[in-house]
Amino acid sequence: MIMIVRSLVPLAAFTLASAPAAAVVYSNPTPIEIPDFAEVESNITIAGTTGTITDLTLSFSGLSHTFPDDLVMGLLNTEAGVGFVFLSNAGGSTDISGVDLTFSDAATQQLPQSFFGLGPITSGTYLPSNFSGFLFTSFDNLTSFSGFNGLSANGTWTLLTADTFAADIGTIAGGWSLDITTSGTDVIPEPSSWAMLIAGFGLVGAASRRRRTTSVNA
Predict the structure, then answer these.
(1) Keywords for this entry (predicted)?
(2) Which residue among 12, 26, 80, 103 is least enclosed by CB atoms within 10 Å?
(3) What's the pTM value of the predicted model, to 2 decimals?
(4) pLDDT tens digits along 52-62
């Protein structure tokens, strides 16, 4: 079958063009209930992107908690086996309600560190703020969001949120999102190539992925 297709369409029919870089927001708007002294996961599954990641920021909407210092948050790329803990020991004991946060390596300041008199957490864009140095125990740990650069955006991304002490709870009412820019370096075919490519679509298979559960330890 493959030999017949090649004999009918000359190799010269393939004219390749570079796809431009693209920034896309991928969201999971499902509210996240943060249980007392426990962990919760929320996933975003991405498919169909080209190129590799060149920039990534993470946002969540409507964060409320009765003791923000309890919170530890991290992002996992389960296919690549890497993770990045970007929040811990921030905001102290002051209740927060309906706060919208974005975390970016390009921000200019971190969240207020707990118990340094820096005030409560307010909506805004911040640098990663893992003041207590939490790490994932079953994944390789990155030191910034740029550590995801060079990876494919496709696959399952997991936001892990942990409440590390008893007696307080919270919620992320509007869910969370990833803003990902890819290099767009994958090639795309010119119209003269489509006939040959369509004939080969039946050869494309599906790969199954296994999801792992991960805990966070200091």
Answers:
(1) Signal
(2) 12
(3) 0.77
(4) 999 999 999 99
197 part of a folded domain:
no
| Total domain count, the chain | 1
Whether residue 100 contacts residue 62, with contact meaning beta carbons closer than 8 Å, is answered with yes
Reported confidence tier of residue 19, pLDDT bands at 50, 70, 90: low
Residue closest to 77 by CA, chosen among 39, 31, 43: 43
Domain limits at 167? Answer: 28-182
Q: Which of 184, 186, 182, 185 is nearest to 153 (CA)?
A: 182
Give the separation between CA 165 and CA 37, rounded to whole angstroms: 5
- Decide if 90 is inside a domain: yes
In a domain, 5, yes or no: no
In a domain, 211, yes or no: no
